[in-house]
Amino acid sequence: MNFLKRTIPLVIAFIMGVMMVFQYYVPHEASQSLLKVVTRWGITIAGFAVFIGAYSLFHLHWNKIKRKFPGWGYSIFVFFGAGITIIFGLYNGGEFFLHDKQEGTMFDWMYFNVQVPAGATMFSILAFFMASAAYRTFRARTNEATILLVAAVIVMLGRVPIGAMIWEYLPPIADWIMSVPNMAAKRAILIGVSIGAIATSLKIIFGIERAYLGGGD
Amino acid sequence: MERLLSIDRRYIFVFVALAVTIPLLIKFDLPVPVTKEVKGIYNKIDSLPEGAHVLIAFDFDPASKEELLPMALALLHHCFRKNVKVVGMTLNPGGTGLANSAITDTGKQYEKIQGEDYVFLGYKTGVELVMINMGENIYSAFPKDFYGNATVDLPVLKGVQSLTDFDYVIDLASGSSIEAWIAFGKEKYDFDLGAGCTAVIGPDMYPFLQAKQINGLMSGLKGAAEYEILINRKSTAVAGMSPQSVVHVIVVLFVIFGNFLYFMSGRKR
Amino acid sequence: MNRDVSITTWILIAFGIVNIYFLTTGKLSFGLEGLGLITAVALTLAIYSFLYKDNPAFKIVENLFVGVAMGYWIIITWFNILKPDVLEPLIVPLFKDTGKSPQYIVIIPTILGIFMLLRFSTKLSWLSRWSFAFVVGLGSGITIPNFVHAFILKQMEPTFAPLYTGDILGSINTFLILLGVVSVLIYFFFSVEHKGVVGGVSVIGVWFLMVAFGASFGFTVMARMSLLIGRVQFLLRDWLGIIQ
Questions:
Q1: How far is Cα C127 from Cα C119, in angstroms, rounded to an integer?
Q2: Which residues share a beta bridge with B169?
Q3: Distance (Å, rounded) from C-alpha B28 to C-alpha C184?
Q4: Which domain holds residue C176?
Q5: Which residue, A134, B181, C68, C126, has fewest beta-carbon neighbours within 10 Å?
Q6: How far away is chain A from the Cα of C137, in angstroms, using its nearest Cα?
């Protein structure tokens, strides 16, 4: 069993990884069609992942309800929202889900009048907390913090129309900050992160990184 | 002074709310200077001949709609005015409805025909896998459009076999999709790429701009406002620039005042 | 508590009066469209009520939103992926004469997709490893060469541009970019002790990072404020109709 449970997945990851690296350097017709086929398969497999997300979410909230955690009553609304949306989606304006998606159905109504406004508003709340943090915690305590603070203030003013009215050199200075020091630091971070991603990929291919196997034997 | 430093944060919230609302009510226009990054995208689309193909990836969801939807609409207006064929898609499931309505509604305003002048291909998951698959063959990645029509039969895609055949690709992103479009799309299949993103990830895009991996960048509502100015269609983004200016000044004043109190109170906090 | 109840009651009354006024004057239509707008506004205001203090209305909307978003994701995945990529090419032609033969090759990703879902089974969860191994191995294989090309080689190229091109300011910027990239990379390189020259250079790296973080902070403020502006525009324009 260990062979099926452990060896085969490691072999699959190794073969897929090595094959794809070689594929990149051999742009032959056969290798191109291989790339097309496996990426096509990957898209289909990834499509199933939605159910993993759904299971995790529903499991979490079901447990909250079952064990009567504080605030468990709110979890009912997760099932209510998901249930109604799924029912409307499957009903598909009377055409049902085996037909093509219909337009202007109650499913779309739920999206435009619940998901869109709630999603957009939820993240806009942070605007208030950022302003509060700017007042309470954004302090020029050290030299480094002062550099950060000055850069932030110049960028905040230089990137909005009023900046040029306050001081005509604010926008060009903000642009310079963005495209010289900011760019250089972000490039170094990008290179560092990419080297990290490449190293992790190599570890996966050679079976050193095995987190994707999950727990157990 | 101590009391001022520890005021109820709800007073600060009221300031922010007023700083946003009052400038919207008392309408005043501020000049919105256009940056070369936004001009890069505009010039590219403006130079396209009629019938050229532009792919717009709507890789955002409702959470960043207020920044990215105005960009999407401005781009769509420009493309339809130029009689360019628009192909839409998304890698973010939450963005599907927004993308579809943006393309369809704008298309209708210009009396464009779906399937002939524009198409929305819908959502696919797998990010880089989708890009590579589209780079090999777009009909493999999207056998059907959002409405279930077979893509091979669509006149709008005539002449397009893969990503290479697009005259311009623009990614509107709220996450890391621009990086993916660069690594697995542009650099692999060689096409011109432009990007629009939320202001949060805007600063991270400058290395790509300087390395010419993207030929233009719209970041945040300001980027959208600049594009609205360029196409001479002032809308929500331009209207948002006056509250944006006022609220930035307020935040800067908060920072200065907070630091003033902090130093005056002997750096105790 | 009593104060909160009375505030809530007054807000609800005001909200009701405004909407009834809009409905009777025809500013809002009776029917799904008008009801949709009222729902959207109610949810928006319920979320903003959090700014006063955490409360049941906010929590209900928060949970409802999570549920609806998940439901939407499932249905969109069905219509955009599972239906066109699995059902139509493979399953429908097996049972119905569509004039096309079933694409049997689709069986492989379908089985791997189903295996993936076995992660939650106690006995068969090991089968999900095959699917994850396929996707993760594939991802790793395409990441390595594409990242080396796009994010390392292509990013190094302009970093090492000729320092002097006839323009003094341009040269200074080119030098600063080189200095910034190298010093930040050295700062992140922990294998060498940050002492002496290395220590000095890494201090410069910290300065560059601070400027970049400051820029990111400024841009984040900008982003969040834009979201708020968008929502206020929605309330003032789409609902109250007091701005254009």
A1: 8
A2: B55, B193
A3: 43
A4: 161-244
A5: C126
A6: 4
Percentage of residues in chain B with pLDDT exceeding 70? Answer: 99
Contacts of A116 in chain C (CB under 8 A): 40
- Please state the pTM of the whole predicted model: 0.95
Contacts of C218 in chain A (CB under 8 A): 151-156, 159
User: Does A152 contact B at CB distance below 8 Å?
Assistant: yes
Instruction: Determine the pLDDT at residue A109.
Output: 97
Q: Which of B113, B90, B112, B109 is nearest to B100 (CA)?
A: B90
Sheet with B53-59: list strands edge to edge: B118-123, B85-90, B53-59, B168-173, B193-197, B217-219
Q: Do A114 and C65 touch (CB under 8 A)?
A: yes
| Closest approach of C145 to chain B, Cα-based (Å) | 9
ipTM: 0.94
Residue pair C233/B70 in contact (Cβ under 8 Å)? The answer is: no
* Cα separation, C46 vs C60, whole angstroms: 9
- For chains A and C, what is the number of CB pairs under 8 angstroms? 395
Asked if residue C83 is part of any domain, the answer here is no
* B34 near A CB under 8 A: no
d(CA A4, nearest CA chain B) in Å: 26
Q: Burial, B27: exposed, middle or buried (Cβ in 10 Å; 0-12, 13-18, 19+)? A: exposed
Q: Would you call C80 and B123 a contact, using CB atoms and an 8 Å cutoff? A: yes
* Model pLDDT for residues B194-223, shown as the tens digit of each residue: 999 999 999 999 999 999 999 999 999 999
pLDDT per residue as tens digits for the range A85-139? 999 999 998 888 999 999 999 999 999 999 999 999 999 999 999 999 999 888 9
Q: Does the domain made of B36-239 have the CATH classification 3.40.50.620?
A: yes
Domains of chain B: which residue ranges? 2-23+246-264, 36-239
Q: What confidence tens digit (pLDDT) does each residue in A5-44 have?
A: 889 999 999 999 999 999 999 888 899 999 999 999 999 9
Q: Name the token pair of B243.
A: 């509250």
Q: State mean pLDDT over B2-14.
A: 86
Taking CB atoms and an 8 Å cutoff, what residues of chain A touch B9?
132, 136
Output the pLDDT for position B269. Answer: 47
Q: Do C140 and A205 touch (CB under 8 A)?
A: yes
How many interchain CB pairs under 8 A, A with B? 162
Tell me the three state secondary structure of residue B169.
Answer: strand
Residue C182 in domain: yes
> Tokens at residue B218, please?
């719209």
Angle of the C196-233 helix axis to the A183-205 helix axis, nearest 10: 100
Sheet strands (E) in chain B: 53-59, 85-90, 118-123, 168-173, 193-197, 217-219
